Amino acid sequence: MSVPPWRIIFFGTPSFALPTLRTLFEGPDEVIAVVTQPDREKGRGRKVLFSPVKELALQHDLIPLQPERVKEEAFQEAVRSLQPDLIVVVAYGQILTKSILKIPKYGAVNVHASLLPKYRGAAPIAWAILNGEKVTGVTTMVMDEGMDTGDILLQAEVPIGDDETCEALHDRLASSGARLLLETVEKMKGGNIQPIPQDHSKATYAPPLKKEDGHIDWKKEAMEIDRQIRAFNPWPGAFTKLGDQWLKIYKGEIREKAPIGKAGAVVWVGLDFIEVGTGKDSFLIREVQLEGRRRMTIREFLSGHPIPMGTVFY
Hints:
By secondary structure, the chain is an alpha+beta fold. About 25% of the residues lie in helices and about 25% in strands. It has a six-stranded mixed β-sheet with strand order 2-1-5-6-7-8.
């Protein structure tokens, strides 16, 4: 017997949520409402920007709900009046209250960008790279009032490439999450999915990134610096001080068993790289952006900014 289409309310805000929302729009169920964070002013002109999820909702003729706080009674009443079968949450940005979670007939499902219980929190992709993980993944879970603490429904592993940036891994995980959500809903409809409680003793956390996290400490090993550069691309970026200016580093590679110079000191300048001493091995900088300038290769950068050997980044 076929199951009638479910009425789904989608909660999400950034680009990570887009593949899942697109999948729901294209699928057999009905997206009856979209909820996203309020519009924010950005930049010097204080231009009002819509979230990526709002942009997509408007393309599908849905005016999203944008409560400042989900605890607002008027918002909760609006959700009740829609009589949803399911709530789907992907990187929304607020923790849903118990009063909202109990509204939908079949509960609320969250798509999270890690293999829970590892990397609960706001920045699981960056922290997985930063910590040198070889594999990460996505999890669908039954939502409760905690932060990523609900019972696990399904998981899918995703390998992390040796040179992969947070931006690239973000896109692959977003696509994987959309596929996993579709599979999760299908299995929920068939009644053949069994929620599994998380082992909270194995939980690790991925707190929000701060701008200062991107400042490179050249006393660290080259491997750690490489992870930092990849983990913080595109935000907040990994950066160092060159004289009185900030230099953002986008790309480079480790040179193992290199002669160790002073940490942060330039030990060699090639046509396409600047070699810098670290706490262990050295690091070859390949792509940079000086503050106020465009992103460029080292060859382009050196043509206008010669770097003498012995220069110290700090």
